[in-house]
Every structure is written in C-alpha cells, then in structure tokens.
C-alpha cells in the first residue's frame, strides 16, 4: 500500500492535482438530474447499513465485496438485502430483493493491501428483473488508462437520500488491479460505479472499494473489472442461494447516520 500511495503522489504531481481539473459534486435531486443514471441505486442490508450499487443487466447488481459483510465480518443473509434502483428523496424507481449474493473468492480472507482491493467485487442476483423502461442497465468496459477522465455516482453519509454525480475526475495511477482515482467519495460510497463516457453513454469501468489519504491528498481506490467481473459472472451462473461464510472485519455506514462507522473502508498509508 505504501508503494501504491507513492505512485499516487507521483501521479498527482504529473496531472497537476485534483483541484485543478476535477468537477464538483452535483446532487441528483430530480428526474432530469438523474437521467442516464437511473440504474444506480442504494443497497440496504438488514435495515442497518447501506452501500451503492449499479445494474449491469436487468437482474444483476454490481457492488463491492466488503459490502456483503457486517462490522463483525459475518455475511448478511440474502433475505436482508434490498436494491433500491434510482433511490431519491425517499422513493425508488424499483425495489428488489436479492436471490444470490456472490463475492469474488480472492477477496475473502485477503490481508489489507492491493490484492484485496483488486478483488473487492460482488454481484447480486435479484429475485425479479428490473423491467422498468426508464432504468437501463449499464454496459461495462475494460480498465481506463492513467490520466483518463472518469465520473462517479454515489451515495454517502451526508447524501444518503439522493445520489451525487462527479462527472469529471481522473485516473491517477494503476497498479496490480487497483485504480487510484482523484474522485470525491466518502463513507457509504463503497460499490459506487466509476464511469467513462462512450458516445455520451456512461459505461462502468470500475467499482469504488476504499478511500485513502497521503500527505493531505484524498484519493479513491477502485477495483479493475477485467478478470474479476468475468469470474463473478461465471460463479453466479452456477451458484446456490448463498452468501460467503466469512470475511475480514470491515465497517460501513449505518442507516442511523452514526459517522463512526464507515461505508467505504478507510485505508491508511
């Protein structure tokens, strides 16, 4: 992780720092604001915690693997997980329960560091597809390059009831399946989709795993989709109705807004 953060500092110097190029967060308060991003939603766990997720098909939600476990490392039961597509101001465009929840097998039990973040990916299979015509699942793309412009749509502790869009941040570095991003995330943003625009259409290229800070510079860490996502698609096609049985101790944002509990795991250098 120290090497990763050293690369981050170098990338910041090369690209001039996030303050010079990144867009500010915009809260998506209306249907017009959210147009094109309706497939981003809030994932609730037992009515006690939440993360962010995004539909990549009518019945598959992409998120971070560590979201599937409570603060003690115990997995949430699938029956306690709900996906609220387009959640905004107390209402969802579609609400679905979850039939299967699969974390990447190389995430479970991994120590802190690049390898764990590189596999911090999960898929949720919904009990029913989201067939609402206004909710269009996202396509996924290969990993972006250093210096590429990306965007993020996320929920967080101070914006739990409406998503926020940052449509301009940067890939600062890539290392061992981890993307270092200048994007503005906070607790609750775990699982948020990272986008690139293809002909004006957002395509998902990463998922937010964690945040880090070095020398006062806040960065986001994302999981490279290449490889891990293909693994998960194969697994969920052959999975039983189950969640993983154990995981490292992780924390996330609780629905009572207790700010001592995090949604995006905080990684320190």
Task: Give a description of the structure.
The chain is mainly β. The protein has one domain: Trypsin-like serine proteases (Thrombin, subunit H, Beta Barrel), CATH 2.40.10. Helix content is 12%, strand content 36%. It is built from four helices and 15 strands. The chain has helices at residues 2-15, 31-34, 114-118, 228-237; strands at 26-27, 40-45, 49-57, 60-63, 81-85, 94-103, 122-126, 139-140, 149-154, 164-175, 178-181, 193-198, 201-214, 217-224, 265-267. The strands form two sheets. A six-stranded antiparallel barrel has the order 9-10-11-14-13-12. It has a six-stranded antiparallel beta barrel with strand order 2-3-4-7-6-5. β2 (40-45) and β3 form a beta hairpin. The longest helix is centred in the N-terminal third of the chain and has 14 residues, at 2-15. It is globular.
Helix content: 10-25%
Outline the biggest β-sheet. Answer: 6 strands, antiparallel, barrel
Compute the number of helices.
4
Order of helices and strands: HEHEEEEEHEEEEEEEEHE
Shape annotation: globular
CATH architectural type: Beta Barrel
pLDDT average, as an integer? 78
Content-based structural category: mainly beta
The counted number of beta strands is 15
Q: Can you list the strand order of the major beta sheet? A: 9-10-11-14-13-12
Query: What is the CA-CA span between the terminal residues?
Result: 6 Å
């Amino acid at each position: 992780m120290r090497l990763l953060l050293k690369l981050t500092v170098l990338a910041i110097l090369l690209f001039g720092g996030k303050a010079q190029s990144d867009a500010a967060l915009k809260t998506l308060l209306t249907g017009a604001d959210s147009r094109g991003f309706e497939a981003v939603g809030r994932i609730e766990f037992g009515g006690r915690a939440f993360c962010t997720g995004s539909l990549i098909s009518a019945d598959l939600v992409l998120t971070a693997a560590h979201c599937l476990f409570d603060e003690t490392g115990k997995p949430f039961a699938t029956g306690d997980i709900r996906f609220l597509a387009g959640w905004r101001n107390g209402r969802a465009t579609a609400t679905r329960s979850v039939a299967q929840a699969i974390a990447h097998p190389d995430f479970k039990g991994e120590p802190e560091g690049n390898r764990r973040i590189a596999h911090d990916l999960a898929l949720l299979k919904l009990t029913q597809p989201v067939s609402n015509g206004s909710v269009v699942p996202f396509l996924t793309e290969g990993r972006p390059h250093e210096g590429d412009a990306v965007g993020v749509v996320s929920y967080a502790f101070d914006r739990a009831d409406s998503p926020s869009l940052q449509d301009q941040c940067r890939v600062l570095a890539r290392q061992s399946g981890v993307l270092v991003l200048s994007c503005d995330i906070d607790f609750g943003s775990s699982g948020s989709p990272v986008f690139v625009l293809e002909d004006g259409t957002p395509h998902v290229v990463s998922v937010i795993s964690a945040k880090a800070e070095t020398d006062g510079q806040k960065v986001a860490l994302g999981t490279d989709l290449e490889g891990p996502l293909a693994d998960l698609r194969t697994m969920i096609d052959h999975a039983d109705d189950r969640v993983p049985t154990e995981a490292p101790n992780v924390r996330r944002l609780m629905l009572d807004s207790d700010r001592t509990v995090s949604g995006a795991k905080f990684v320190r250098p």
